Amino acid sequence: MAYSISLMREEDIAQVAEIDREAFPDMWPPTDYRRELKSRLAHYIAACDDERPVEKPKIETAGDEKPAGLVSRLRWHFLHGYRPDYEPPPASHYILGFAGFWLMAGEAHIISLAVRQSYRRRGIGELLLVSLVNLAARLDVHLVALEVRASNTGAQSLYGKQGFVIKGLRRGYYSDNREDAVVMTLDDVASGQYRARLSHLREALLKQACPR
């Protein structure tokens, strides 16, 4: 099995929505990923199984509107002027998980990270997290923030492993059960030292997830 990380495309929305419903069944209203991909503030990536193709869905676009995935990749090239680590995926690919953040005032706020239930506990969530932070660093973001349920100690442990620290608590943050949210942040992600660590860790996780 071979995994890869790519920028999310409009063709991925159906699979991403399926994973979203599985991971967050109580979230309402559901996220409108088509609108998200058109936003300049939103940045999403997907973990794919390169050896499990799926039928490419038909995407209808109005007028001369360009697919959001293409716009996202073009925006990346204009921002950075070099070939990104996140290569455009094949025309059809099976998505194992996804993650995304909003970029606001120089801060990346992670808003989602989910993996298909049948693919959990294989390091894919950690790979997505590291890749997402790596993307934020390449966009010259200096701080990454997120909220996590107070009861989700497993996720808190994963974030802590990557250097996130607890900064506070948001009382009654989650609308489904009024559970508190733990606020965690990661500072100095754009520093050369941390970016080198991220690159090395990302390669190690890819090798771990895709043994040959």
Structure report:
The chain has 212 residues and is an alpha+beta fold. It has one domain: Aminopeptidase (3-Layer(aba) Sandwich). The protein is 34% helix and 25% strand. It is built from 6 helices and 7 strands. It has a 7-stranded mixed sheet. α4 runs antiparallel to α6. It is globular. The N and C termini lie close together (8 Å). About 13% of the residues have low confidence.
Give a summary of the structure in a few sentences.
This protein is 34% helix and 25% strand. It has 212 residues and is an alpha+beta fold. Helix 4 links the parallel strand 4 and strand 5 (143-149).
Strand content: 25-35%
CATH topology: Aminopeptidase
Shape: globular
Structural class: alpha+beta
Q: Quick one: how many beta strands?
A: 7
Could you say what the CATH architecture is? 3-Layer(aba) Sandwich
Mean pLDDT: 80
Count the domains.
1
